[in-house]
Amino acid sequence: MDVIRKVSVVLIVVALVSFVGGFAYAEHKAKVNINTATVEELMSLKGIGERKAESIVEHREAVGSFTTIDGLKDVKGVGDGIYNKIKDMIAIE
């Protein structure tokens, strides 16, 4: 019984360390700069597929750099829903 208890404690500690480590990784992951990102980099954002990523690049090339991150909503196909999902993962600098 003592062995089972020790194994259980070890497994719980490993699970907690993995869980906390995942949060640490997510917080330290670099934001995607929507003014310089490639189609592939933009596609790493939740809800941005190849076509939307291409639209973002085309919009950026036609209009110029984004001055705020919410300027992304001016791109056809990027509305409040997608913007709200990715706003914490994007930057303009």
TrEMBL record:
Protein's UniProt keywords contain Magnesium: no
Residue ranges of coiled coil: none
Protein name: DNA uptake protein and related DNA-binding proteins
Pfam family, one: HHH_3
Family matches, as SMART domains: HhH1
MF terms (GO), sorted A to Z: DNA binding
Helix-hairpin-helix DNA-binding motif class domain residues: 40-59, 70-89
GO cellular component, one term: type II protein secretion system complex
GO biological process per UniProt: DNA repair; protein secretion by the type II secretion system
SUPFAM superfamilies membership: RuvA domain 2-like
Lineage of origin: Bacteria, Pseudomonadati, Planctomycetota, Candidatus Brocadiia, Candidatus Brocadiales
Keywords: DNA-binding
Keyword field contains Transit peptide: no
